[in-house]
Amino acid sequence: MTEVTLPVREQTACTDESLQLGLIELLFFAYRDFTSDPDELLLQYGFGRAHHRVLHFVTHRPGMTVAELLEVLRITKQSLARVLKQLIDTGYIIQIPGPRDRRQRELYATQKGKELALALALPQSRRINTALREAGIDRAVVEQFLRAMVNPERRRQLDRHQPGALAAEDDRHDRRGTAR
Amino acid sequence: MTEVTLPVREQTACTDESLQLGLIELLFFAYRDFTSDPDELLLQYGFGRAHHRVLHFVTHRPGMTVAELLEVLRITKQSLARVLKQLIDTGYIIQIPGPRDRRQRELYATQKGKELALALALPQSRRINTALREAGIDRAVVEQFLRAMVNPERRRQLDRHQPGALAAEDDRHDRRGTAR
DNA sequence: TATTTATGTCAACAAAACTGACATATTTCA
DNA sequence: TGAAATATGTCAGTTTTGTTGACATAAATA
Searching chain A, which residue's CA lies closest to the CA of residue B15? Predict the structure, then answer.
């Protein structure tokens, strides 16, 4: 029964650090419950988690192009097309031709879309706030840890697109400006 | 552009707490990168993430029954059957009839299975350790937060099955003992 | 003008979940 | 003991969400 607690020799031989089995499992359980929060609501709208993700990013990065959305979600355009089309057809998202480059489609959440995005964020936000309070931990501490868990290449994006930070849009416009 | 930072009125009206948009996104990005760590390895073995999860829990809760595995994973038996059968057929997991109840199948990882489970845990563990170091945070703090993120009903299971804790097996045997 | 780029779309496919139905062996209960 | 409940396995069909590959269109760019 003791040898099931995984080979300690290999563990120390490879990394001289502990195998974080506890945190690995906790991440699984915590994330599963966290994502299950909006599920019931999504079901009522006939949407799935893929729709949730698209609506979230379009709402919080208004004016995002299709290419930018693909890069954030890391899926193929064919995969995105299905859910995005549904969100557009049902009036949660609108597309407008890019003012500088008319090939691009800038994406915006409608009022209806913003309201749904908020309704989906509320239970997740409540879970996080409750957990922070119960554990007696400051938001910034968890934020630091999670940020460090993200691949370094991706962290730049996070800095540019802090939800609520307005620098993001300006930055995007700058890039497109200099590209001409 | 400012109204996109979501209706502050509703936010305060509902919960008097902040909408944790930053943490919601960070959880998405962090978990995605975290789960992508073992992907390359899994691909080489012709397995997917579903196999990873099954192998993980069978390795760290040896003697688990099919029913217990289903409860932890929260999937249907038809869904489990497919991946479990593959793991058994390829010699990563074995089944033995429960000694007390011969209808049950107790699941055990083979040596081969334990080795793969370890190899899959290593990159995830490394990411966690690096993140803790970079953020200068103690493991216990993150553990407290993640535990509080899990649905309260589930936390009991976590206490019984701390990876590395040996009380789990005894507990299970006790339960089955009294059931007769 | 020719090429590249941004987007859209068609078709086929795969992983991993689901439901519903039914079979078998074993245990439990009246 | 015989009937009912339980643990597991399996067949068949469906859904969601991802994939590849191919090709079309409009707009920008060299």
Answer: A126
What are the residues facing B105 on neighbouring strands? B97
For tokens 């992907």, name the residue: B39
Question: Is the Cα dihedral B143, B144, B147, B148 positive or negative?
Answer: negative
| A26–B31 C-beta distance less than 8 A | no
CA distance A94 to A84: 10
DSSP 8-state secondary structure symbol assigned to residue A165: -
End-to-end CA distance of chain A: 67
Q: Which nucleotide is nearest to A104 (CA to C1')?
A: C6
Biggest CA–CA distance in chain A, Å, is: 67
Whether residue A137 contacts residue A128, with contact meaning beta carbons closer than 8 Å, is answered with: no
pLDDT tens figures, B18-67: 999 999 999 999 999 999 999 999 999 999 999 999 999 999 999 999 99
DSSP run (H or E) holding A105 = strand A105-109
For helices A66-73 and A49-60, the axis angle rounded to 10 degrees is 120
End-to-end CA distance of chain B: 66
Residues 6+ apart with CB under 8 A from B70: B76, B77, B80
Note whether A54 and A83 are within 8 A (CB): yes
- List phi, psi (to 5°) of A110: -80, 175
**Cα distance between residue A36 and residue B150, in whole Å:** 11
Chain B residues 40 to 79 with C-beta below 7 Å from nucleic strand D: 65-67, 77-78
Nucleotides of C under 7 A from a protein CB: 5-12, 15-21, 25-28
Reported pTM: 0.85
C-alpha dihedral over B159, B160, B163, B164, to 10 degrees?
110
| Amino acid found at B140 | A
How far apart CA A93 and CA B84 sit, in angstroms, is: 41
**Backbone conformation region of residue B106, classed left if phi is above 0, alpha if psi is from -120 to 50, else beta:** beta
Residue A164: the pLDDT is 53
State whether residue B9 sits within 8 Å of chain A by CB: no
SS3 B106: strand
